[in-house]
Amino acid sequence: MIFTKPTIPAGTRDFTPPEMIRRNYIFSNIREVFKLFGFLPIETPAMENLTTLLGKYGEEGDKLLFRILNSGDFLGKIDQNLLIKKESHRLSNSISERGLRYDLTVPFARFVVQHRNEINFPFKRYQIQPVWRADRPQKGRYREFYQCDVDTIGSNSLLNEVELIKIIDMIFNRLQIRVNIKLNNRKILAGIAEVIGEADKITEITIALDKIDKIGKEKVIEELIHRGIQNESIIKLNPLFEMSGSTVEKISFLEKYLVDSTTGCSGINELKTVFGLLSTYEIKNSVELDLTLARGLNYYTGAIIEVKAIDMEIGSVCGGGRYDDLTGIFGMPGVSGVGISFGADRIYDVMQHLNIFPSEAESTTQIMFVNFGEKETEALLPLLSKLRLAGVSTEIYPDPVKFQKQLGFANANHIPFVALVGEQELAKGLVTLKNMNAGSQEQLTIDKILERFKASSI
Amino acid sequence: MIFTKPTIPAGTRDFTPPEMIRRNYIFSNIREVFKLFGFLPIETPAMENLTTLLGKYGEEGDKLLFRILNSGDFLGKIDQNLLIKKESHRLSNSISERGLRYDLTVPFARFVVQHRNEINFPFKRYQIQPVWRADRPQKGRYREFYQCDVDTIGSNSLLNEVELIKIIDMIFNRLQIRVNIKLNNRKILAGIAEVIGEADKITEITIALDKIDKIGKEKVIEELIHRGIQNESIIKLNPLFEMSGSTVEKISFLEKYLVDSTTGCSGINELKTVFGLLSTYEIKNSVELDLTLARGLNYYTGAIIEVKAIDMEIGSVCGGGRYDDLTGIFGMPGVSGVGISFGADRIYDVMQHLNIFPSEAESTTQIMFVNFGEKETEALLPLLSKLRLAGVSTEIYPDPVKFQKQLGFANANHIPFVALVGEQELAKGLVTLKNMNAGSQEQLTIDKILERFKASSI
Q1: Does residue A365 or residue B76 have the better pLDDT?
Q2: Between B35, B388, B398, which is nearest A152 by CB?
Q3: CB atoms < 10 A from the CB of A194, how many?
Q4: Which residues of A touch B35 (CB under 8 A)?
Q5: Is some CB atom of chain B closer than 8 A to the CB atom of A333?
Q6: How confident is the model at residue A75 (pLDDT cuts 50, 70, 90)?
Q7: Predicted confidence band at A325 (pLDDT cuts at 50, 70, 90)?
């Protein structure tokens, strides 16, 4: 037999222990904060019926779904002509009824409708699971990646937006990543489009405005003309180009600018409520109004949220907004929700780049006992038990091999303490404890060891 | 548009919050114990190349693999004749190159070979991920389910077996499930077959022996004859039928019985070492030798381990053993390993049946504040912040709706405490705290609330 080195599919990843420990550090911080705010976990299956998934992500999205081949004799009932014509697209719908989850939003909507009678609304749920997309793999873009979603559904209260922003603040504080939290509101964008007489051109206007810092006012105007905005509309837009100052100043400017648009005024009132509540909430990161935020304009109906890392140039690390009809696609209309999603892969990249993973995210074992042979091992087992019952991660090297080899293992696995209990130590009831970082060592009684590590593990 | 109630594929499951909280209780106990023993986490992709998976689970297993349809124009290069003949089986290999993970063992073997230069051997890894099998769905059998595997690879030391048994003991102690831990050793079974002159009939002999309690000695002998065991061999087997007593007595009996088989003696020595080490290790559950344990006879080469719940009739809740050539299938021979796998779904069923989930596995939020309106909410936010910073899961009902509705929500979500801060309380700096289980209520200062919940969350 000839063996080739095994590989995994393009765009997927193995996670080795050092990567897993750091990833788990991120996930458990995110999960803990979700729980601290009273959000409840759900999980949905990796596979959904294609009827659930198709048509929800646009034509491009449909192409990016991973489809599961039906089991058994899947060709049996297929029309011969379809096969001869080699119509891959039409055939795939006949030989495949299930697809892999593409995001957590559509499965969540399906879940809410399916379990509507078991759910207590307002439903505050979080969901941390992988999703799959048949995208062309490239640096930083994977075919399997985790999403961490948190949503409140069935409540119109703006307190929900405020709680989500506080969640963002607390998570990034914990991870020690400095961020800018940017807020926008679709109603304000709609108001602007209305006020300048281009109600149907929200997206074009927002996208053009987004470029003002990069390309300047002149070029933006060129682009607006190119995108079919009337001259007199552009003139009405002019005051917006000049808008500056703090968020408070911007809001007060917009309040006058949008006075003739009911939608616009309602957007302003929402912003004022949100910023008002935030001001009593000790937010550590900056939260600012950003009119150019155009994320998800085709489904968000109120707040739009985006979070950028300050100390590294990278896409957004978190984003979301309010949607008014998530479950309508499954026949349950009029349920409003608001949610955000954290990008664990980007957060990982930021933390690696800034080298801010704490040392507890580098290892799991706190103390490794050297293996001197069967007699010494047997004497050690009760101590191992006690340490573990006290919550101290403890291991003993499994084979009585050379000391240097065992030390090398501890070193490679970043284990901070190595304990030696040879014949001499055994006779005296002592343990020689080696601090692998400091290089120092000392002799302690077994009770002392227990005491010291117990304290450090709490 | 007509909507039909959305569903999920047969054999898959949604997990609602109450289920998730209980499942997470099981998973986090398992994970914590793995960590306490110094095992390191890995994760592998949901999809593997079919070349990795095919032929590893027998012909039946190949049929149970979920295959991913290739993306794009997958029929383009397919031979027309193959299509016209409708050969589903041959075609599926041409239009699908990837499949979903069927277990965690083969991906682990692939991982070890692929990352051999990054791994520090002996490699102690754990892996908790879902697997997928296109089995016919039935009660208790799912097409998507989690496996919790823990293995040490690259060490022959029997200390590894002992550590795994201690892990079993600790996990089931934590979950408060009483279990019988059953041990066998393939070398002993091989020794028995050798001693009676039927070296190639290990499996037949073990399976027949397994039935002695159910069908009695006479029927077992009938079955052995039926399975082609010679008469004189069956006579030699006779003393085994009479074997009884404690594990120590059984081992001492087998030591004499197997004296002429090198393999058998080696198996006995292994058992003696394992039971010897276990005796100093304060194992709370019973560990016994069970010669009829035939689990995985075609791949286990030494220890065989199986765990049964005492208080509920259900299949094994954990099992495993030693294998000598896991990575050989991927071209890296001679690496010995030993591992076990916990069945989270069965453990869940046992705990539900015995009603032993602790109350902390019923809810996440510890205290819910009633929403009396914007002014009261604004005043409360700093307190919410403080409670969360102290590790207390806290929420506020998002809308200022009727008190009874808010109370009903807390009740439905099993939230143990509800706090009321209305206008009166606000003026006095007091909080009315309602104990939802006891039905009692009391007024406390904000500092007192903080103090009480802080203490309870540690």
Answers
A1: A365
A2: B398
A3: 18
A4: 364, 393
A5: no
A6: confident
A7: confident
A 124-153 residues with CB < 8 A to B: 124-125, 130, 132, 134, 143-144, 152
Contact B46, A144 (CB under 8 A): yes
Tell me how far apart the alpha carbons of residues A343 and A108 are, in angstroms, rounded to a whole number. Answer: 18
Cβ-Cβ contacts under 8 Å, A86 against chain B: 75-76, 78, 80, 83
Residues of B in contact with A40 (CB under 8 A): 17, 20-21, 364, 413
* B399/A279 Cα distance (integer angstroms): 19
Distance CA B172, CA B160 (A): 19
Q: Which tokens belong to B174? A: 């934590």
Confidence (pLDDT) at B324: 87
Residue located via tokens 């879940």: A111
For tokens 């120590």, name the residue. B248
pTM: 0.93
Instruction: State the first-to-last Cα distance of chain B, in angstroms, to the nearest integer.
Output: 53
pLDDT above 70: residue A6 = yes
- Sign of the Cα torsion B71, B77, B79, B84 reads positive
ipTM: 0.93
CB A66 within 8 A of CB A132: yes
d(CA A39, CA A149): 11
CB crowding A274-299: b at 16 or more within 10 Å, else e: bbebbeebebebebebbbebbebbee
Token pair recorded at residue B17: 């919050």
The answer to which of A217-226, B101-110, B115-124, B342-351 has the lowest mean pLDDT is A217-226
Distances (CA, A) of A369 to A362, A386, A387, A443, B120: 19, 14, 12, 14, 17
